Amino acid sequence: MAENGGKEKELTEKVVSEAEELPKTIVRRVVKEKLSQLSSDYEISLLRDSLQAFCESARIFIHYLSATANDTCKEANRQIINAEDVFKALEEIDFSEFIGPLRASLEEFRQKNADKKSASSKGKDTSKKAKRKEPPPAQSPGKNKRREVESDGNDDNAD
């Protein structure tokens, strides 16, 4: 029995760790883009171990930042973490140089979403108007024939 419990715990830990892992392709792309900006003279490649180290470092950073933001949120007697909590957490863990670029990126993201919302609401309005102008769809003759056959069948059962 103890052996069975150990296997279950190991399986659970493996599933949890896989769920927490960052996508390696995205991490590779981010690292390569940043390194290519710093050194445009030659192509940079990553060894599997270094990619794993980047992934694990990023995962730990996200956990630490989210725990710190959660503490900030709880101090304010709230249950939902907002962007300001993340900014305060970055300041607390001495990464305040990220706050400026992150604020700019967040503002750009919000602007794009606002533009998408306004475009989609305009699209909905025009589609509603177009639907009002169109006559209702006529029934196809196939449906009428089917109803006639069904009603003929009902007359047979009535006798």
UniProtKB/TrEMBL annotation:
Span list, region Disordered: 110-159
Gene Ontology molecular functions: chromatin DNA binding; protein heterodimerization activity
UniProtKB keywords: Nucleus
Ranges of compositional bias, category Basic and acidic residues: 110-128
Name of one Pfam family that matches: CBFD_NFYB_HMF
One GO process term, biological-process aspect: DNA damage response
Nucleus among keywords: yes
InterPro entries according to UniProt: CBFA_NFYB_domain (IPR003958), DNA_Pol-Epsilon_Subunit (IPR051377), Histone-fold (IPR009072)
Keyword Nucleus applies: yes
Subcellular location: Nucleus
UniProt-listed CDD domains: HFD_POLE3_DPB4 (cd22928)
Gene Ontology CC entries for this record: CHRAC; epsilon DNA polymerase complex
Domain Transcription factor CBF/NF-Y/archaeal histone: 21-90
The protein's name in its UniProt record: Transcription factor CBF/NF-Y/archaeal histone domain-containing protein
Organism: Erythranthe guttata (Yellow monkey flower)
Phylogenetic classification of the source organism: Eukaryota, Viridiplantae, Streptophyta, Embryophyta, Tracheophyta
